[in-house]
Specification:
about 150 residues, mainly alpha, 10 helices, globular
Amino acid sequence: MAFVEQDFGRDLALRVARDMVIYLKRPGGQSQFSVALTSQMAGTKGIRDVQTWLAAQPGTQVRLEDMAEVAGMSLRSFTRAFAAEVGQSPMAWLETLRCEQAKTLLLDTHMPLKTVAWRAGFRSDEQMRKVFARRFSVSPRDYRRRFGSAA
């Protein structure tokens, strides 16, 4: 991908990388694209820096003010710029990132739900359960049972 980026530019390299994330058989209810990969497509460096920073530490408790500081913007400017560029609020995007991390841990490990929730950045397994119910209409335990091979 580095050669594609060097020869043809960042945008094409990201599109190719995104297209290469394919599955032989995709379990239902799972996103086609990685949130972390999609975040690299942000055009504004400050927004991209925040997304990269958050993706590198999904379990960290982060405030909106922390994100704005990493972006080098005022809180108000950051919130507006992020929503305009990414299509959702910074906190909604962070929740999406945490869900992706939690789903990966649920599918690939035998970790207890409390550990999965903590590692993915949720305050508790109860918060993770509520988010999963709202976003996926399934509990984390049922998600693991349906789609996981490690459970």
